[in-house]
Every structure is written in structure tokens, then in C-alpha cells.
Specification:
Layout lengths: L1 E9 L16 H13 L6 E2 L8 E11 L7 H8 L4 E8 L12 E9 L11 E2 L6 H12 L21 E9 L2 E8 L6 H13 L5 H10 L14 E7 L6 E2 L5
Parallel strand pairs: 3-9, 5-6
Antiparallel strand pairs: 1-3, 1-4, 2-3, 4-10, 5-8, 5-9, 7-8
Protein name: tRNA pseudouridine synthase A
Keywords: Isomerase, tRNA processing
GO molecular function: RNA binding; tRNA pseudouridine(38-40) synthase activity
Length: 253
């Protein structure tokens, strides 16, 4: 039995999230279907990061096991089976006990705002045509890095055992009419990035002070966070593994 990691990207608009769910259209279900069709056996994959309904990914990983040899045109054939909004970017040899979720060192997300109406950004960002204090946004992002308990930014009905996350990067970038929140951590809670963004936008608009932001974080109460930003602005950008961990496999086109 061999274990493989696969690297995928997807546009989340048409899906009820990444993870397989009963009676729901999900990204992972499409990937498992494509793998099962090509390998002619039932494949059940394990994903590295679960994204919510409507959320996009430039890079996500899954692992699966099979005793069968991989087709010499594996990449081409899987991409031919997958729908247009999901792409297989790579496949990797890994140790037989490697787990795509637990071996990951960090995940990086971006949340994209655009400030002037743009039909080409409608499904790739959040139209937010309001005046904002960028310096206040940056200060709020810096405050986020001072904390490790993010209970406030986790949606209810989650089954995690801990709300502790190690934030490595938290900052905003501005490029013309695009304002982007960049955040990297070892793990994220359900709804966490959107909760951070929505709450910081209140700071940027002068509706929440920095002290009130601190109080909201320290309250460990999700009713003090604002999760009301749409999913299409959120992108899982990178899942990082130890150097040398992933060994790429080359295939014919």
C-alpha cells in the first residue's frame, strides 16, 4: 500500500464546503470521485484543511492510499475528470504514515476586499466601498498576534478540544483598490479568519476601538466577533510542510 499527497486548487462558489458531507456537493467528494474512477477502486481521501462553503483555495492538500500503480498520465486524466472549478496541481510521494492534516506546519490565508465596483472581482472578493483607517486596521492586525486563545473567533458547534492557535503573520496590504488581510498560523478554528476580518473592519471604520478589540478577544465569547463577511473573499493560499517532506512525482502530459 502506497500513500500519496495531492495538491489541489478550487473555486468554492458552487460547493457546500471542502469536506465530504452527506447529501451535499463538496470539493473533496469530487476529488474522491475522480480518483475512484481513474483507479477503479473506492478512494477515501483525508484533507489537510477544511474550508467552509464558498471559500476558495489556491493550495490545499489531501492524502490517499492505494496498492495500484498510478497511470502514466495520472495528472492529465484526473484533471479531465474533475469539474472546471477544481484542479489537481501536483502529486507527491510521502512516508507511509504521513498525514496531510497533522504533518502541516502552517496554513496561510488571504481575505480580499475591493473598494470600487468591479464585475470581475464579484466572485473573488468582498466589495467594500467604505472609507477606512488603514493604520487602525494594521494596529488591529498586530494586536491579533499578541494572543493565542481565539475562542471569540470560533463559530459555535465546533468539536475542537482547544482554541489555542499560534499566529505567525497578521497584516494588511493595500494595492490600489484592493485591500488584503494576510494571516498565517499553525491551525485555524471554524470561521476564524472571517471572524477576524469582520471584527477588524469594524475597527477600520471607527466602530470599535483597539481597547474594545482586546476586550472582545479576552471575552472568549463569539457573540463579540463579527463573522458577517462573505466567503468568496477568503482564499487558502498555502499549506506548508517540512522541507524535503514532499517528493514530487512527474507524469506524462
Amino acid at each position: 500500500m502506497s500513500r500519496y499527497f495531492i495538491e489541489v486548487g478550487y473555486k468554492g462558489a458552487q460547493y457546500s464546503g471542502f469536506q465530504v458531507q452527506d447529501n451535499a456537493h463538496t470539493v473533496q467528494a469530487e476529488i474522491d470521485r475522480a480518483l475512484s474512477l481513474l483507479l477503479r477502486e473506492t478512494i477515501v481521501s483525508t484533507g489537510s484543511s477544511r474550508t467552509d462553503a464558498g471559500v476558495n483555495a489556491q493550495q490545499n492538500f489531501l492524502h490517499f492510499d492505494t496498492e495500484l500503480p498510478l497511470h502514466p498520465q495520472f495528472m492529465y486524466k484526473i484533471n479531465a475528470i474533475l469539474p472546471d472549478d477544481v484542479v489537481l496541481r501536483g502529486i507527491y510521494n510521502v512516508p507511509p504514515d504521513a498525514n496531510s492534516r497533522f504533518a502541516a506546519l502552517s496554513r496561510s490565508y488571504e481575505y480580499i476586499l475591493y473598494t470600487r465596483k468591479d464585475p470581475f472581482m464579484k466572485d473573488r472578493g468582498y466589495f467594500f466601498p467604505y472609507k477606512m483607517d488603514i493604520a487602525a486596521l494594521q494596529e488591529a492586525a498586530s494586536i491579533i498576534k499578541e494572543y493565542s486563545d481565539f475562542t471569540t473567533f470560533s463559530k459555535r458547534n465546533t468539536q475542537v478540544k482547544t482554541f489555542i492557535c499560534a499566529i505567525a503573520e497578521s497584516y494588511w496590504t493595500v494595492d490600489g483598490e484592493r485591500i488584503v488581510y494576510n494571516v498565517t498560523a499553525n491551525r485555524f478554528l471554524r470561521g476564524m479568519v472571517r471572524g477576524l476580518v469582520g471584527t477588524m473592519l469594524r475597527v477600520g471604520r471607527g466602530k470599535l476601538s483597539q481597547d474594545q478589540l482586546r476586550s472582545a478577544i479576552e471575552s472568549k465569547d463569539c457573540t463579540n466577533a463579527d463573522f458577517a463577511v462573505p466567503p468568496q473573499g477568503l482564499f487558502l493560499m498555502k499549506v506548508r510542510y517540512p522541507d524535503g517532506f514532499l517528493q514530487p512525482i512527474s507524469f506524462d502530459r
